[in-house]
UniProtKB/TrEMBL annotation:
InterPro entries, per the entry: Anoct_dimer (IPR032394), Anoctamin (IPR007632), Anoctamin_TM (IPR049452)
Keyword Transmembrane: yes
Protein name: Anoctamin
Entry GO MF terms: chloride channel activity; protein dimerization activity
Gene for this chain: Ano9
Record-annotated membrane-spanning stretches: 157-186, 237-255, 301-324, 344-363, 390-413, 523-549, 570-597
Keywords on record: Cell membrane, Glycoprotein, Membrane, Transmembrane, Transmembrane helix
PANTHER family on file: ANOCTAMIN, ANOCTAMIN-9
Domain Anoctamin dimerisation as annotated: residue spans: 83-146
Anoctamin transmembrane domain: residues covered: 149-717
Membrane topology term: Multi-pass membrane protein
Keyword Ubl conjugation tagged: no
Subcellular location(s) per record: Cell membrane; Membrane
Length: 738
């Protein structure tokens, strides 16, 4: 039975005898035969070649990477290498076998000599266990069998699922806190003094929100939105933002401890990736010379400039989305439908968010191609180095793709659009959009909610449906040929390998970046969950619910819909840890800026402590934010409108008596310059930002120091091991001295 186990299967079209492709295929298979590989051929609609490596290759691997101290003591010990290691070694040899024409397998696949190459999903006990206990929707709340995952898919995949499980587990805590903050906001839905003042402002006439067909409007019209805004924008938001900064740090520190425990149990804590790679090179070719480390400042400069050009292009796309919202606002306000006219701002933001999601989907594919091209220019020394370089580039591009528009809404929307009588215009015609009348944080909340919901519904549905449909179609197309049995002839028994190889071939192909895509998706989600969480407290809850399904979705894809991944050895999640730490710092900066700039928290606090009745009249029986709305609105004379706006206002239903008030600005009534209050609030915003970020970063550093990266049990385990080894060494030395 063991003889019928095959390490890899190569698939080829049936080429004409004597054709160039057939000759190249034969040369490659001959090279494998010279190395002692056993090759089995099965013909169907395609040619299938089963490949099994000789045992001496694995013995060399065991010998080279065995602990030097144990070599003398275990010369004759024979232990079978794990299946995952067999597959990894065979894959390395296949990829690096060179034909007499100096072509490798990668070149032959580009020339369509071979169509596919993959290890097999074996009908073994581990696989059946994983299918029954892990890759099922009903096990959504069950513990993951990380050890079994490692035995079947290797350490890299096992560490991904260990990390994802740990992230989801701790995300549950953040989700509960975020939900409590949100529910607390709902409970004070009607009790906010600021909201009450907006709802009672039936005589406060506001300036038109656009130039065409926009009437003057009453501040009380935004009563409901003001209450909704207060659900998000309250004192609890500040506490939650600080909590999430601490949570991000504690999560990473606890993951480091978890990872140290896991890889110690696997005896991989001190594993050296470079040594492993050199050993495989020598097993493949004894004459191999290692490629030396090199660095070119010229090449690095070129790549840096190209990265900056790409980032500038992504920011340009964000600007295009801004222009879309400006034009959409103008179009909706001129619509024949009353609903569109009244909700023009919300409609522009909502459709802009959907368009933003579409650009994310498209640019993700573009970003990948650009990042791969830049990695090829860099000429990294090893695959691991190439993967790290690719990770940094693709994450940088994806970050700007996902967050450029959000950064604009959070920090620039409504702050660079001028004021009545002197609006900033696109192409001299369309006014730059303003924040929602109830506050800028509402726009950010809408954008975050739509993008996260779309990413976690449509993207996940497509992530499952596309491979499922592709698998069904391949299965239908690749049915095995039926044999015509002539009367009186004995039916030829079907090769037992044929069905297995064909069923594996019908699965969706995997590539070296299949696992990378899953990591990238989760790290982008982690960024959404932490960076602007002050504007969207439900982000951790949405991420938590998504991840419960994501774990099982990934498991089902790997077990049932995709070919078996080539296992990779690892003792950590690689450069993703540094990326997550960078996101943690960005989260502190982002949330500090949201509270200081986007939120009304600072202006309200400045009013309470400097201008409120509590301060000026020493009144103890009134709410200290009483009068804030009137204080935060500036007066504007209608006759000072631009001629363009005056013509558009003719015939509007709500005619003012010479004055109108503009929400969210601090300007003088005579020359429209900034008031003293504006500079007080500006100074308070700056002071809060500095204080919040320094406090949060200090708490992060304290948390990182307080929670050790490596558990004491792991340290003691290594201490005992070193002590034991030294005592053994001493026993060898002492008798000789005697």
């Amino acid at each position: 039975q063991d003889e019928e186990k095959w390490d890899f299967v190569l698939v080829s079209d049936i080429h004409e005898v004597g054709s160039e492709k057939e000759i190249k295929r034969k040369k490659f298979l001959d090279e494998l035969s010279k190395r002692g590989f056993t090759i089995k051929k099965i013909e169907d609609k395609k040619l299938f070649y089963g490949v099994r490596a000789p045992k001496q290759i694995f013995r060399k691997y065991q010998w080279l990477l065995r602990n030097p101290d144990s070599r003398l003591q275990n010369l004759d010990a024979q232990h079978d290498v794990p299946v995952t290691t067999r597959i990894r070694i065979v894959n390395f040899i296949l990829q690096n076998t060179v034909t007499p024409d100096l072509e490798k397998l990668r070149d032959l696949m580009k020339k369509k000599v071979f169509e596919a190459t993959f290890p097999l999903h074996e009908k073994e006990e581990v696989r059946e266990f994983l299918k029954e206990k892990w890759a099922r929707w009903r096990d959504i709340f069950s513990h993951q069998p990380i050890e079994k995952i490692r035995c079947y898919f290797g350490e890299k995949v096992a560490l991904y699922f260990a990390w994802l499980g740990w992230y989801t587990y701790l995300l549950g805590i953040a989700a509960v806190v975020g939900l409590v903050i949100f529910v607390a906001g709902i409970t004070v839905f009607n009790s906010s003094q600021v909201s009450k003042e907006i709802c009672e402002a039936t005589n406060t006439v506001m300036c038109p929100l656009c130039d065409q067909q926009c009437p003057f409007w009453l501040l009380s019209d935004t009563c409901t939105y003001a209450k909704v805004t207060h659900m998000i924008d309250n004192e609890g938001t500040v506490v939650f933002a600080m909590f999430m900064a601490i949570w991000a740090t504690v999560f990473l520190e606890l993951w480091k401890r978890q990872r140290a425990t896991v890889v110690t149990n696997w005896d991989l804590y001190g594993w050296d990736e470079e040594e492993e790679e050199l050993a495989m090179e020598l097993i493949n070719n004894l004459q191999h010379e290692p490629r030396q480390y090199q660095h070119s400042y010229f090449r690095s400069t070129i790549i840096l400039l190209l990265v900056l050009v790409m980032i500038a292009m992504l920011i340009g796309i964000a600007h295009a989305l801004v222009i879309y919202r400006v034009i959409a606002m103008a179009v909706f306000t001129q619509s024949d439908l009353e609903f569109f006219r009244e909700q023009a701002n919300t409609m522009a933001v909502t459709t802009g968010a959907v368009l933003h999601y579409i650009t994310i989907v498209i640019m993700t594919k573009v970003n990948r191609r650009v990042a791969l091209y830049l990695c090829d220019l860099e000429k990294p020394r090893t695959f691991s180095q190439r993967e790290n370089n690719f990770t940094v580039k693709i994450f940088t591009f994806q970050f700007f793709t996902n967050f450029s528009s959000l950064i604009y809404i959070a920090f620039f929307l409504g702050r660079i659009n001028g004021h009545p009588g002197n609006y900033v215009r696109v192409a001299g015609k369309w006014r730059l959009e303003e924040c929602h009348p109830s506050g800028c944080i509402t726009d950010l909340f809408i954008q975050m909610a739509i993008i996260m919901l779309l990413k976690q519904t449509i993207s996940n549905v497509m992530e499952y449906l596309v491979p499922w449909i592709a698998h069904k179609l391949r299965k239908r197309q690749q049915r095995p040929k039926k044999r015509n049995v002539m009367l009186g002839e004995e039916e030829e028994a079907e090769d037992p390998c044929k069905r297995q190889w064909l069923s594996n071939y019908q699965l969706n192909e995997v590539n070296i970046f299949s696992l990378f895509d899953e990591f990238l998706e989760m790290v982008i989600q982690y960024s959404f969950t932490t960076i602007f969480v002050a504007a969207f407290p439900l982000a951790p809850l949405l991420a938590f619910c998504n991840n419960l399904f994501e774990i099982r979705l990934d498991a089902i894809k790997m077990m049932q819909l995709r070919r078996r991944m080539v296992p990779r050895k690892a003792n950590d999640i690689g450069i993703w840890l540094q990326v997550l730490e960078a996101v943690g710092i960005l989260a502190v900066i982002g949330n500090g800026l949201v509270i200081a700039i986007t939120s009304d928290f600072i202006p309200v606090q400045v009013y309470k402590y400097m201008y409120s009745p509590c301060k000026t009249e020493n009144s103890t029986g009134v709410d200290c934010s009483t009068g804030y709305i009137n204080h935060s609105l500036s007066i504007f004379r209608v006759q000072d409108f631009e001629p363009y706006t005056k013509g558009a206002m003719a015939g509007t239903g709500l005619a003012p008596t010479g004055l109108c008030r503009r929400y969210r600005d601090y300007r003088n009534a005579d020359d429209y310059g900034y008031t003293v209050q504006f500079w007080h609030i500006f100074a308070a915003r700056l002071a809060f930002l500095i204080l919040f970020e320094h406090a949060a970063l200090c708490v992060k550093l304290i948390a990182a120091w307080y929670v050790p990266d490596v558990p004491q049990s792991v340290k003691n385990q290594f201490l005992d091991r070193k002590h034991c080894n030294l005592r053994k060494e001493l026993r060898w030395v002492m008798p000789r001295k005697v």
